[in-house]
Amino acid sequence: MQYRWLPLATLLLALGLGGPARATITISTDVTLPGDPTYGDTLADEVKVTGSAVLTINAGGKVQGPLEVHDSSTVNVSGGQVLTYVTAYESGMVHVSSGSISEFLQSFDTNSMTVSGGSIGLNFIVLGSSTATMTGGTIDGYAYVSDDSTATISGGKISGGLLSFLGAAVSLTGGSIGGTLEAQTTARLDIFGCNLVLTSNHISGSLLDGSSLDNPVSSASGIVLHDDLEPPTLTCPANMIVPATSAAGATVSFSTPIAFDNRPGVSVVCTVSGTAVTSPRLFPVGTTPVVCTATDACGNTSPCGFNVTVLPIADLQISQSADQSTVKSGRDLTYTLRVKNTGPFTANGVIVNDPVPSGATFVSAPGAAGVPTVGGAGTVSWYVGTLTSGQSVTLTLTVRVTQKGNSTMSNTASVSGSTGTPDPNPANNAATLQTKVIGNSK
Ligand SMILES: [Ca+2]
Ligand SMILES: [Ca+2]
Questions:
Q1: pLDDT by residue (tens digit) across 45-63?
Q2: Does residue 1 lie within any of the structural domains?
């Protein structure tokens, strides 16, 4: 162990020379304070936790101590108080998430310790190949890390300073450190942040959690700075094409672009015309570019983009009637087709098709662009072109009935538009009319 840098009072306590002799309470089965039937809310003497026992100190629980954690046992300080100090031996574990340890927390062997909340009144001492993690809480004194131990600090507050010795490996990504940063005699202190600057006796910059670093340095030889200069990578969704659902456009859901970075803390914002947007969003008819930017914890950025195209829609509909509900075989029959665009947008490329019914031959179709020969069979086509919303057109087809009487003749006409103007209601794009055929007129 390396005691050269520890204050004398801490050293005496660490060697067990500081306190008056007390009785020892040995705990070898799980105990939770307050509420344990044997102990109530207080362990009033020195306490030794052994075996694989778990001692949990919740709010209202109190341990006089000193408190020793041996073997593979665990102490959870989750809201109560340890009025002296806590020492971990062998593979003992200590987790401080709330509450307080009035003096110090120390580990001597291959211990595992976490501090995520609460407070430690003096020092956090990590020795003997221990592993320590600090994500929150406060340490009013120093953090000492030595003897090949490792410590990871990403949050919380250490008021005194962060000192490492003798093969220790310390990683600092966040939190607040008062006082000096040291990495002496083969220790290594890796600092991850943004715009880190190390001069001979001072270090400044910001850590990855955004907290600022502005500390004296007593030895810079083992301090390694890791500025994040690497921008995130950002992958946008593919371009989207959707039909409008109303004259206003369409409400479109898009997935948030996926960002990766070498450090935590990357954020993604998407904008349309410079204004932040989130999914789902109403997009107007037409093509709208969406621009997204990923920003990492150090302000490095990467862009990506995608287009949302909302197609105009037009509900075309067709209906038909005939000039006779009952026709004699051999006579002519005229169908009237009525085609309407009920909107909400203009329809383009409108085509009406009407195959001459079987049992009839073609006679005439005014305005049709494609017709069968007179007396023949085939499909009549009208290229109507553009129909604005609400506009309609009426077409006629005359056929000669050739099928025998006492039968039924069926005519089906259909309408379609450009694929660039989808039809939200295809069910009314075809109409069929049945006409009764009676005996030969000749
Ligand atoms: Ca980065
Ligand atoms: Ca339709």
A1: 999 999 999 999 999 999 9
A2: no
